[in-house]
From TrEMBL:
<keyword id="KW-0393">Immunoglobulin domain</keyword>
<dbReference type="InterPro" id="IPR036179">
    <property type="entry name" value="Ig-like_dom_sf"/>
</dbReference>
<feature type="domain" description="Ig-like">
    <location>
        <begin position="200"/>
        <end position="287"/>
    </location>
</feature>
<feature type="domain" description="Ig-like">
    <location>
        <begin position="106"/>
        <end position="195"/>
    </location>
</feature>
<dbReference type="InterPro" id="IPR003599">
    <property type="entry name" value="Ig_sub"/>
</dbReference>
<dbReference type="GO" id="GO:0070593">
    <property type="term" value="P:dendrite self-avoidance"/>
</dbReference>
<dbReference type="InterPro" id="IPR007110">
    <property type="entry name" value="Ig-like_dom"/>
</dbReference>
<dbReference type="GO" id="GO:0098632">
    <property type="term" value="F:cell-cell adhesion mediator activity"/>
</dbReference>
<dbReference type="InterPro" id="IPR013783">
    <property type="entry name" value="Ig-like_fold"/>
</dbReference>
<feature type="domain" description="Ig-like">
    <location>
        <begin position="297"/>
        <end position="391"/>
    </location>
</feature>
<feature type="region of interest" description="Disordered">
    <location>
        <begin position="336"/>
        <end position="356"/>
    </location>
</feature>
<dbReference type="GO" id="GO:0007156">
    <property type="term" value="P:homophilic cell adhesion via plasma membrane adhesion molecules"/>
</dbReference>
<dbReference type="GO" id="GO:0005886">
    <property type="term" value="C:plasma membrane"/>
</dbReference>
<dbReference type="Pfam" id="PF07679">
    <property type="entry name" value="I-set"/>
</dbReference>
<dbReference type="InterPro" id="IPR013098">
    <property type="entry name" value="Ig_I-set"/>
</dbReference>
<protein>
    <submittedName>
        <fullName>Down syndrome cell adhesion molecule-like protein Dscam2</fullName>
    </submittedName>
</protein>
<dbReference type="InterPro" id="IPR003598">
    <property type="entry name" value="Ig_sub2"/>
</dbReference>
Amino acid sequence: MSSVRVQHGGLYTCVARNMMGAAQHTAALNVYGPPVSREPLNLTVVSGSDVWLRCPVGGFPLSRVACLVLRGVEAARDAGAYSCTASNQQGRSAEGRLHLHVMRPPEMAPFQFPSTLVEGNRAQVSCSLISGDLPISISWRKDGGPLPRDQAVNSQQMEFFSHLTFSDLRARHTGRYTCIASNAAATANYSADLVVRVAPTWVVEPSDEAAVFLQPAALHCQVRGYPPPVTMWLRESGDPPGEPLLVESTVDTQLAPNGSLVFPQVQPHLQGHYTCRASNDIGQPLSKSVFLRVNVPAHFPTRQQNATAVSGGAVTLRCEALGDLPLHVSWSRPGLQQSLTGRTSERRTPSGVPGVASELRLSGLTREQQGAYHCHASNDFGQDEAVVLLAVKDSLRGTRNG
């Protein structure tokens, strides 16, 4: 107020409203001066509420101000024109006038969405006002915010009801929908939850994977849907494959919360066909079969060995390399230019890991031949090296002759 006058004095109320209700605070502004009339006041109240009427006049201080309390107001009984008088100690007075309007607040009938809606269905709910003085404005909100722009969603308001329609339900339409009705007296609202059940769809579709022996690996299978789909893994058993077996969490396999099948340390016996299935009883279940291949790089389970032979005699040095075939094995000795050729043969460990055993035959041994002999192994997935330490001792005959 840039230029305060006596007429500006009185009670001021600040009101805050949202869809959940309203709050208010009232404070007095006192402007010194004699009693003075204000413009007639139009006051709208809610039917059935208690109303406190204070004579709408200005001036301060006032020795007598007329007030009136109406409880449980009714339009037929209490609506209409009221007049009152206020005076000060000097005997000056002023008349105030107001017109009381009593309105019925909006009251809506409860509504709800069908509980069996699935993606692709159509749906409609009606927000119907069973009482309340017109005109009434009706609006819709979703999850506390404005109704999103969507070609599949439409609202239509008539005089005392509003239709909310969905022409093609999708997962994005799931949420809480609130109907808000307002007239000059009050605001009312009612909310209902829309749940769209959605068949499983792939987020990450399983695919064939190649893993490395003793390294971690995973077969990914992630789906979405509502209710949340249940995911399971099956593995074909036997050769030829027989009835699929359910995969459970063990030392070798772990079922992740997101649906992936995790292998902490891949072993050869884990190689095979796996199937991921996901279902939530909506639509057709998802199913995808993939193959896990376990690649075993060349490696030596024993990196160092000792061998002893007698001078003039013969010895066979042996090394065993494991890994996927073809597996190439060769021998070498530091400082020796010519290549050493060993005899190799394929083998397989009890755990199913393929491998190659190589034997290097040395004869007519001398002390100069003792030392380190290196066995090298390689395949498409890696390489490794082992060493055999050969000690050549003098023969007993050579010792006696010496």
